[in-house]
Amino acid sequence: MLHNILLLFVGLLSLEHVSFAEVPSSQIVNITETREYAERMQNFSRTNFERLEKVRNRSIRVARSCKELRGRYDEREDGVYYLTTGNGMLYQTYCDMTTAGGGWTLVASVHENSIYGRCTVGDRWSSQQGNNADLPDGDGNWSNRNTFGTVESATSDDFKNPGYYDITAEDMSVWHIPNNLPLEFWNLEAAAVLRYHTENRFLRLYGGNLFQLFKQYPVRYNVGSCGDRGPAIPIVYDHGDKESTRMLYGPNSRNEFEPGFITFRAINRERAAMAICSGVKPTVGYNTEHYCIGGGGYFHPEQCGDFPSFDYDRLGGYQGWSASREMTEAAVLLFYR
Fold it and tell me: From which residue to which does the signal peptide run (predicted)?
């Protein structure tokens, strides 16, 4: 039964560039009918001792990033690898070894466990301590060394590994992957809601990672006004484009941003701070709670959470300020290179 549900779920993920809600079901290509999907299901449904030994032996590699693994050991296969921090801590993460030259290290994922919760348990990228102006930083995980979750559950729960603060990087890649999709299918292009990367080495200007960037631009309630946002960086699309990005957000939101960017530390009208506006740059209006993620510890009472107000006019309603169901029900995977 579970196997059939997985087949049905993944089969709905093959549409590229437009909202699923706008396409008749007769036009959706069933990904479960492709050779690649069949081969992967066969590989992962039985014990392949040769492959398990190969994956396990990756722990003897010594590198601090997937970029170093690719350069030093010529690793070119997407999947789970072991990395070592500067202090010698060994941890597992996912490496994208193929996109735009490869070498991308997964360092975090933002997963909304309950769109109806308002800064409750599970909202690690905003606040799990309630909507409280006396705790303006919330959980503070954008700029601390806390780690949580596991790489295999990064589309089912929040994830943050030591690479978030340990790796010195130049660029970022972002994947929006449907909630609960198993790791072995993440790199199928048809499975992505949105995928893009930067290529102007912007992180060199901000300490080399998000940990340092958010020290410069704190994700904190009342830290500034609408005009005090952080950098907005041009992106290169790996799946999607400017128009499909625009359509992933609500009709009202589309009047407030320009697609084709990733923006850091946006502040809304109520002076609540959000960490990342994925795929867009706020330009006017500043109701960023409807299209930016993460945050500090206090918002308007109807806006608090990791996806602060993506459901404002009904979950997945694709109307008013509500983001699309595809965007709301996808984890945001953050990579460095």
Answer: 1-21
